[in-house]
Amino acid sequence: MESLDNVTAARKLLERHGEVSHAYISAEISASWSRCLEMGLDPMRPPKLRRMESTTWRETKEQHEKVSRIARREIETLHGQIAGSNFLIAFAGPDGTVLDALVDGSFRRPAQDRALGPGTCWSEMMRGTNALGLTAALRRPAVVHGWEHFFHGDGDLTCVAAPVWGPDGALAGVMDASSSCSTRQMHTRALLSMAATQVENALFRDAHHNRLLLAFHGREEFLYTSGAGLLSLGADGQLLGASPQAQLMLHDLPLSPGATFASIFEGRFGEIVAGRASGETFRLCDRSHSGFFAAIVARPAASPPRTPSARLAAPPPPAYVAEDPAVARALSLAAAAARRHLPILIGGETGTGKEDLARSAHRASQRAGRFVPVNCAALPGELVEAELFGYAEGAFTGARRGGAAGLAVEADGGTLFLDEIGDMDQRAQAALLRLLDDWVVRPVGGGTGRQVNVLLIAATNVDLEAAVAAGRFRADLLHRLAVVPVRLPRLAERRDFEAVAIAVAAKIDPQLRLTAPALALLAQQGWGGNIRELRNVLTRASLEGPKLLEPAQLRPFLPGRPASQALGQAACRLDEQMAHAINVTRGQCNGSISETARRLGISRNRVYRALRNSNQGTLHG
C-alpha cells in the first residue's frame, strides 16, 4: 500500500490529465488504472450500476449454486469474526458478479449507495480498479485502499479480495471484504484468505467424495486445518487430484492425474498409506526431501483398507543440473557456504530454480534438521512475523489457542529458506535482523525466547539494492543476508539447456523422453518463465500419452514464437506512423490531449506515451 501523499499526487494526474504515474503507486494499481483508461472509463464518471434482470440472475445463481452454497458458510463465519466493524463480506463469480453478501453495521448505507450486493458486477471493466475486480482479472489476492480505487466516489473504501480455485484448477469465485477506510482491520486479509482456502477444500472434498483423501502438512498441529494439502488417491496409489494447497506445497513435483504415489513421495503406497487406519498420523518425505505429517481423512465407503501388490518405487529425482559454468559456480559457492554455516542470498528471475539450489545447499550442509521453505510473498505482511517466529496465545485476532512455535523453530538444526525476501514488510525485516544478531526466536505477543541453530538461505527475483535505495528494504539486513551472494541465469542463457530439459522431463515422469528434434525445438524458445515454464509445457505435453515426445506433441503447448525481423520492422513502421499522426493531430487541436485522443480513436495514455517518446527523439514530424 502506497503512502497517502504519493497516492494523492497520482490521483491529481489521473483526474486532471488522464495520465497514470508509475512512480507514485504500485505497478499493480498503475497497470489497473491504465487498463481502465484504455477501456474508456472516466475516473470522475462511473457507469450506473444496475442489477441483473431476474431471468439472467436466476440462471447465474443456478450456474454457481454449489460453490455459492459452500461459500455461504464461510461468509457467515467470517462475518461473525469481524462483526461490529462495519464490513461487507461478499462472494462473487469468476467474472466479478456478486452472488451473495452479508453487510454489518453502518456500512449498509454505503453498500446500498454503490449497489454493492448480489446481482451486480464489480469487474474491472464495470467498476474500475477495486479488489474484487482486480482479483478476478489477475487471479491473485488484492488489496485496494482509498484513492487507489479508480473511481473518485470509491475513495473512502478499503477492499480486500482473494481468489477461490476449483478442483479443476479454474477460478471458481472471489471472496471480498469491503469497508470504509476508517474501520479497516489489519488481519482481514489473512482471515479472508483462510475463508477462501476453506471453500477450496470443501469443493475438492465434494469433487472427490467416496475416494481416499490424504491430508498432509509440515506441522502436525496444522494437519486438520485449512492449511493442509489434500490428495485424492486411487486404490493403487495413482493420483486422482490435488487441492490448491497441495499444489502449492508440492509445486515442483508431478501432480497431474495419473501420477504415481512413488513419483511424489519416497516409499511405496502399500507400505506407507493403504494399510493405515483413518486418522492415524504418520510421516512422509517427498521426492524433494521435504518432510510432512500426514493422515488419511476419508476413505471410499465400501472399500476396506488393503495392501496392493508391491510395485517398484520411482528412482530418486535427478541431481541438480549444473553443466552451465555460471550455474556450476553458484552451486559450488552455495555448497561451500552451507558447510560453513554462512547466510546465502540467491538471486535470479522467477522460475530459474532458486529453491532447487537452496535444497541442494541444504543437502551439502549435511545438517540433521529439516529444510523449511517459506514464501514471504504468499504470507500477508501482518502475519509474516508470526509465521516465522511464532506467537503467544491471543497475540492477534484468529491466533490459535496455545500459540505456535514458528517456522524458525521448526528449522532448528536444519535450513530456513526465505523465498521472495524482497516482499517482506518492514516490521518483519526488523525482527529477522534481531534473529540474525543472536539467533534467539522471540514469539509475537511475548513469551520465552528460544535459541536456534539455523542455516539461513534467502532468495529474491528483485534488485534488493534498488529496493534499499527506494526505502523498501533495510540496508543492514541486506548486508547480513548477502554474506555469500549467488545468482542463477535465465534458462535461455544457460549452456546446458538440453540437460535441464531432460532432467525436468525425468522429474515429471521417469519414463518420459525427448527426441533430438524436440530438444532442438525447445532450445529455440525464449522461456520468459524459465524452468517453471518449461516444466509446465512438458507436463501438458505428457498428458497426451506418449512417453517419447516429438516436436508435433510440443508445438501446441509452446508460447508464441518470437516475431521475425520483418514483422519487427513492420511494427516499428506502424509505431512511427502513429507517432506522426499524434503529433500532427495535436497541433490541429491546439495541444488538447483529450481532443487528439478522440479524433484518433485512441486513449489519452497512448497520446502521453507518444509525447514522452517525442522528448527522447523518437517522435518524428
Structure, explained:
The chain is built from 25 helices and 19 strands. The protein is α/β, with parallel strands linked by helices. It folds into five domains: 130 residues, GAF domain (Beta-Lactamase), CATH 3.30.450.40; 91 residues, no CATH class; 163 residues, Rossmann fold (3-Layer(aba) Sandwich), CATH 3.40.50.300; 67 residues, Helicase, Ruva Protein, domain 3, CATH 1.10.8.60; 51 residues. Helix 4 packs antiparallel against helix 8, helix 12 crosses helix 13 and helix 19 packs across helix 21. The radius of gyration is 26 Å and the shape is globular. GO terms for molecular function: ATP binding; sequence-specific DNA binding. This is Transcriptional regulator Fis. Pfam families: AAA_lid_14, GAF, HTH_8, Sigma54_activat.
What tags apply to this protein structure?
Beta-Lactamase; 5 domains; 25 helices; 41% helix; Rossmann fold; five-stranded antiparallel β-sheet; alpha/beta; 621 residues; disordered C terminus
What is the general shape?
globular
The averaged pLDDT comes out at: 81
The total count of helices amounts to: 25
Strand order of the largest sheet: 2-1-5-4-3
CATH topology of the largest domain: Rossmann fold
For this structure, the quaternary state is single chain
Overall structural class, as computed from helix and strand content, comes to alpha/beta
Q: In this structure, how is the largest beta sheet organized? A: 5 strands, antiparallel
From the alpha-carbon coordinates, what is the Rg to the nearest angstrom?
Answer: 26 Å
CATH class of the largest domain: Alpha Beta
CATH architecture of the largest domain: 3-Layer(aba) Sandwich
Number of E strands: 19
